[in-house]
Amino acid sequence: MPWPRRVDCVERPDRDLLRHGTNGEADDAMTGAVEQESLFLSELGRRVRHARTVRGLSRKLLSQTSGLSERYIAQLEGGQGNVSIILLRRVAGAMGVRLDDMITGSDAVPDWPVLRDLLGQASPDQIAAAKEALSGGVRSAGGPRPRVALVGLRGAGKSTLGRLAAERLGWPFVELNAEIERENALSVKEIFAIYGQEGYRRLEQAALRRLTEHSGPLILATSGGIVAEPLTYDLLLQAFFTIWLKARPEEHMQRVRDQGHLVTTGDHTSAMQELRAVLASREPLYARASATVDTSDVSVDTMVDRLTRTIEARFDGRQPQAG
Predict the structure, then answer these.
(1) 8-state DSSP, 259
(2) 244-294 residue pLDDT tens
(3) Do 162 and 226 have their domain in common?
(4) How many angstroms separate the most distant Cα atoms in the chain?
(5) Domain end marker among 59, 82, 116
(6) Are residues 259 and 193 in the same domain?
(7) Are 168 and 308 spatial neighbours (Cβ–Cβ below 8 Å)?
(8) From the DSSP assignment, how many helices (H) and strands (E) are in the chain?
(9) What is d(CA 121, CA 12) in angstroms, rounded to the nearest whole number?
């Protein structure tokens, strides 16, 4: 049975899709990127200078300890020029500072170094309790709510199978990207163009958080890349019974082609190599889902049967079965 052709599937756009704009748009994007890089270097220099002065180190002493010239340290603190990560690592090591604190900073959360050390010593139960408290306590009291989220690579069948399973169960069905578009009156492509990757991530997490407040049953289809956003994916795992729709790379590719959507440009060989690389990098994340339904080499009806049985087993009080 051929994979159903879909024309309304909404998926997070590949970065290649965002590269095709007018020359003016490209120039604006380049100008914005340069400004962001300049700001980053300035903030990095400020953090290095603060770390040095708070420890009572002169530039000369830091130069002797790190093996770098005073001139280089002065340029680094002044936010001038590019920065070698290796040399920055030497500066951080000479001051006894973590490299990630130099790069990202901890000013926004002054207690972050303490929290990080406490988390490093915490038990799994303590970490789970901390995550629940910090996420606003999205876990449901009195047993799991009948909320299901589908994850998987593009072409896994999240939208098609999710909609069919929802119809069979009599549950509402929601596509997360469609919800983001509805709430913001913009397409996903427009959101990326206006707000960028970080802006999309914020809107995605906000939309998901609102869906966690849904009291009744729900099947949610997510974007393939949601697993790469740690906070958003953890929220999903806490609030939803999450199912990984798993398939072989060849099936992913064929389904995407059948639907009229290509995951990448170029010839079939390079497209398959890219798809395999993405799948390999995401498999450990998809595997964190509560259940797995294998959709390889079976008909759509069989896929829906497997998915529906897994959902019913969970909310009938039995353990979910892998497909």
Answers:
(1) T
(2) 999 888 888 888 777 665 544 455 677 788 888 888 888 999 999 999 999
(3) yes
(4) 73
(5) 116
(6) yes
(7) yes
(8) 14, 5
(9) 37
Identify whether residues 52 and 168 lie together within a single domain: no
Q: What is the pLDDT of residues 164-212, one digit of tens each?
A: 999 999 999 999 999 999 999 999 999 988 988 788 989 999 999 999 9
Tell me the two tokens of residue 131.
Answer: 């995550």
Which is more confidently placed, 133 or 241?
241
The predicted model gives 139-162 an average pLDDT of: 80
SS3 201: helix
Do 91 and 219 share a domain, yes or no? no
Which CATH number characterizes residue 149's domain? Answer: 3.40.50.300
Domain of residue 144, residue span:
133-315
| Local confidence band at 308 (pLDDT 50, 70, 90 cut-offs) | very high
Query: Which residues are within 8 A (CB) of 252 and not within 5 positions of it... i.e. 6 or more apart?
Result: 153, 154, 155, 156, 263, 275, 279
The domain boundary residue, chosen from 58, 89, 116? 116
3 sits in the region (left: phi over 0; alpha: psi -120 to 50; else beta) called beta
Cβ contacts of 315 within 8 Å, gap of 6 or more: 144, 146, 241
Question: Same domain for 150 and 104?
Answer: no
180 shares its domain with 264: yes
